[in-house]
Amino acid sequence: MFELLATNATTISAQFDVIGFKESPLALAQAHETREKLMAAHSELAEEGAIEIVIIKTTGDKILSQPLADIGGKGLFTKEIDEALINGDIDIAVHSMKDVPTYLPEQTILPCNMEREDVRDAFISLNASSLADLAAGSIIGTASLRRKSQILHRYPSLKVVENFRGNVQTRLRKLNEGVVHATLLALAGLRRLNMTDNVTATLSIDDMLPAVAQGAIGIACRTNDDKMAEYLASLNHEETRLAVTCERAFLETLDGSCRTPIAGYASRDENGDCLFKGLVASPDGTRVLETSRKGRYALDDMILMGKDAGKELLSRAGPGFFNS
After folding, report:
1. Residues annotated as part of the active site
2. Does residue 4 contact residue 10 with C-beta atoms inside 8 Å?
3. What global pTM score does this model have?
4. Which residue of 41, 42, 111, 142 is 20 to 30 Å from 318, comparing CA positions?
5. What CATH number has the domain spanning 3-114+215-236?
């Protein structure tokens, strides 16, 4: 049977499939979404017991008292899942793509990005209708330097608590307890959890450029597992895969880490072309550098756009930019 693991990623295993994912309600929702789509696409997987879901607790889930950058960055949400996949404990791993480092471990491939959810960020507050409506000195909780830098760039009178970590439910509980006055969360996660009733306002792309690959689910399998690769290919949404590849090329060129405020978003415009927007910022938000590219919505063109945008911002930023 397939086995499914739960963590920031999800996995599927042999006989049928085992899906592995990170331990969180959102990761579990993404694992179930993957299972449902596999069952709908392949009748043999709709049989009882064909797909098993297994929860994997990652280092990123275990250590919540420190900022991600201080304990090793985003790879902490995928390391244990990757190991389970390589060891054959699971057959596929379901990841939030924005948690996946720009490199993949040897013996693994990521042949599938499911159709992307809404990429925007949601503003949530009990006493303000928007960021602009918050009083000077108000405290915003976020674990994202990307969000922090863009907030402070536009609203320097606000304060941002960096280590506002935990799953969606935990962050909302802290907000309700008055630990912070507002927080920002990915709208995609709230939609997958059916929790959009908590959203106070949705931020536009111009107000808050999203994280690279935000809203996208990626599914990995072992390099030599042709059967799993075939299953996953049936779930792939090519427009999403190309957009994510473009954004990750930008991130890789910048050698981005959790210490680096970086945002990037590739989309298809009204003419069917790719429009890419990229941003880097100083952690304190005093400097924000932006760029954009437009070209054919095709793999090679989009990789080049992402890389070229990254090279431009590296050149404009100069040495020491991210240490300010």
Report:
1. 99
2. yes
3. 0.88
4. 142
5. 3.40.190.10
